[in-house]
Each structure stands twice: as structure tokens, then as C-alpha cells.
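[audit] Reproducing an earlier prediction to check determinism. Same input, same settings, fresh worker. If the C-alpha cells differ from the archived copy the diff job will pick it up downstream; this log only records the rerun itself.
[audit] input (31 residues):
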Amino acid sequence: GESMENALRACCKGIKIGKILIHRDGDNGKQ
């Protein structure tokens, strides 16, 4: 159970970081 929770938390963190990086790249591309 704990291993699954840790995996999900790591996944969520990765997704959040990925979205931030994508938004930054998009802003730079527009400008």
C-alpha cells in the first residue's frame, strides 16, 4: 500500500513539474 502511494505521489509531482515546464516553453515560443 505504501509503495503504491509513493508511486502515485511521485507521478503527480512529475506531472505538475512537466506542466510548468511545458507552459514555460510555450511562453518562450510565443515571444
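[audit] rerun output stored. Observation attached for the diff report: The mean pLDDT is 84.
[audit] end
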